[in-house]
What we know:
Structural class: mainly alpha
Helix content: over 70%
Number of helices: 18
Radius of gyration: 22 Å
Oligomer: single chain
Strand content: under 5%
Distance between the termini: 13 Å
Shape: globular
Number of strands: 0
Amino acid sequence: MSETLTANMSRAPYRTIWNLAWPQLLMMFFHFLIGMTDVWVAGHINREVQASLGIISQSFFLLLVVAMAIANGAVAAISQSLGAGLIQRVKRYTGLCLLLAAILGTAFLVIGLPLKNGMLAILQIPPEMRTTTEYFLTIYLAMLPAYYMLMITNAIFRARKQVMYPLYSMIIVTALNTVLDLGLGLGWFGMPNIGFKGLAWATFISITAGMLLNVFTLARHGLLKRDSFAPWRWTKRAMPYLIKVAWPSGLMQIVWQSGYMVLYIITASLPWNAVDALAGMAIGLRIESLLFLPAFAFNLTASILIGHYLGAKQPKEAKKFGFRILKIGLISITLFSFVVWQFLEPWVGLLTRDTAVAAQAISYLKWNVLAIPFTLTSMILAGALNGAGATMYNMFIMGGATWGLRLPLAYCLGHFVMQDAEGIWIAMFCSQIVQSSILLYFFNFKNWQRFAMIQKRTPRHEQ
């Protein structure tokens, strides 16, 4: 059955890519709408709220690194098992990842709450933003268990090629977040106007609703039954591969997200116009994320297909699909970026009425839109390597580009050479060129297929 499915996919490769990519593209679009709504409402409150939201939204990803790591491990293990036709193994990895999500999400909530003041001190939050930022952080920490479950259940569905279910949950999240942002943040629809606190609670409620929908769907498909939760003997044998994939992915996320935190600190410590630069960066990130929609969709699609073909023991076909996805992505998204370039100023104008903030946002976008072909190459190839379980390559390459080039160059250009935030944006551009070039070399010339979970002999209980 698995061999027949693989043959059908190979006969229509671009249809296979599209069928997996378009629901994830829509899902990323809803992510974009959430971010744009948050920033738009925050901008109508004041610039301090907008800057606080940008810092916490970006920094919050550092608290999600373990969930991202488990998600990457889940996609690699489940998609490869599915490609090999090992259905029982698929179910058991599903149950194992769910347990890890619930346990670790709760653990980080318990650990994070007592440490929140230290986290705020590290971020060097300006005094006028302290109260708002602290409230955002508190609510976001309380949201960790639900967010962990949402991320892991979405990864499980993707690995099983059930890409419509993450889309359905994201529709629910987007609709609730939008209504509650406008209602609680600005007092629309007759709701109580609680300002920036409404933005925080809108995120909490919507993420929880999406998580509950995913859990209900898993239960309806019989994936929360007893046979999905393997005995300890099996778990001890299965956990090493999950850890092998997850720990470099998690460490890479720590290195990457902490790099963004340091980038925020470099920006926040600029001796000139620091708050304007932070708010402009927050707006720029939201608009830039429009270009990341198809890139993330192709990233996730690459993970699924690479894992499936390696599970089916077809490494050459896996590599071909990686390059096919890269070709589609480069052509389509580069053309799309030219369209976006024409509308940068009016889009920025929709998100802020502050001319100084708008100027910083446009400066940020100018350099990061130019970097899109390189950023796209990095994202798609990193997704392919995740599906293969070769997360070690991503960790060293992306971590090295961030800490070895981006941050030192950003500090030098921003604080000394140009003495302006634009120097920080130029450093981001340069690091993307280097990072994507190295990833392309490794994907083309190195034996990344060796990281796959290749089963030499199928145990009787997994047949």
